[in-house]
Amino acid sequence: MPIRFPFQFETQQGQNCGYPGFNLSCNSQRQTVLKLPYSGEFFVRNIDYLKQRIELYDPDNCLPRRLLRFNLSGSPFVAALSQEYTFLSCPSQFTKSGFTVIDCLGNSTNSVLATSSLSLANLTSPPCKIITTLPVPVTWPYEGSLAQLLLTWYVPNCVDCEAQGGMCGFKGNNDSQEIGCYYAPPDPEAGKDISSLFLHFAYLMINYMLHKHNQKSEPSN
After folding, report:
1. Residue 154 CB: number of other CB atoms within 10 A?
2. Could you tell me if 150 and 46 are in contact, meaning their C-beta atoms sit under 8 angstroms apart?
3. Dihedral of the CA atoms 200, 206, 207, 208 (nearest 10)?
4. Element (H, E) at 148
5. b/e map of 53-63 (b: 16 or more CB within 10 Å)?
6. Which of 19, 20, 88, 144 could join 6 via S-S bond, C-beta 3.0 to 4.6 A?
């Protein structure tokens, strides 16, 4: 997964390559980590620079636990898409059909379930108790999964630059945070290949024309 502007690996690239709030780190298992100011660390699954979206998942594989206290304040990210989820605590013997079972939050006597249908959640009381209802940043296409988050950012806006094949970066001194769009220089080797092909074609044409000329010059029997 390429890491480039507005993101930066702070320990490898210094402090001047990325936009504020887009610092990433790499743990001992070589996994890319994003730390949100009020929600802690998440692993990065993917970054889509054209759509300006980032997919995150929980290092402990218990994202619902994190969602109960999830807060994006102080970060440049917002939910790309949200789905209202209701979380419930139910007796372990409760029929779980139609619900997402949160195994990492349950125990031997109680199960924690989740559903995007508030009407379905209301039908379970009693014996279940609603813990909370909250918006969850979900991935698209929506598959009812609570395994990962989908976040987006609007500043800096590099959508047009990316769509044209460029890459965003700071203009000169990044103290102004003014953004420019930059393009890779043309590959000189590609020009050499085209020139070689043209010369080879010209050589073949000249030989062909000389051959035809010699045939016409030969006396007929």
Report:
1. 10
2. no
3. 110
4. strand 148-153
5. bbbbebeeeeb
6. 19
pTM: 0.76
Is there a contact between 128 and 166 (Cβ–Cβ < 8 Å)?
no
Per the DSSP assignment, residues forming a β-bridge with 100 are 114
Q: What is the mean pLDDT of each run of 10 residues along the chain (221 residues)?
A: 90 72 92 96 96 95 91 95 91 85 90 90 89 84 70 96 93 77 73 57 56 57 50
Element (H, E) at 213: helix 188-217
Tracing tokens 């050499």 back to the chain, one arrives at 192
Q: Give phi and psi for 64, each to the nearest 5.
A: -55, -35
What's the pLDDT score for residue 11? 74
Alpha-carbon dihedral 89, 92, 93, 96, rounded to 10 degrees: 60
